[in-house]
Design a protein that fits this description.
This protein has about 60 residues and is mainly alpha-helical. It has one helix at about 1-50. Keywords: Membrane, Transmembrane, Transmembrane helix.
Length: about 60
Amino acid sequence: MEDSDNAQHDSAETRRTELNTFLFLTIFVAPILSVMIVGGYGFIVWISQMYFGPPTGG
């Protein structure tokens, strides 16, 4: 009996930890990472246009 109670407690604790981790990743990490990626790409395009000039209609 005692082992099954421990297993259920560990399972509930693990589930709560996983939920907190999921919420942290989806609310904080994913938006910050996406803004950094898009901003980094824009910065690379901006710097490359300073060296190679703006795109032409060619």
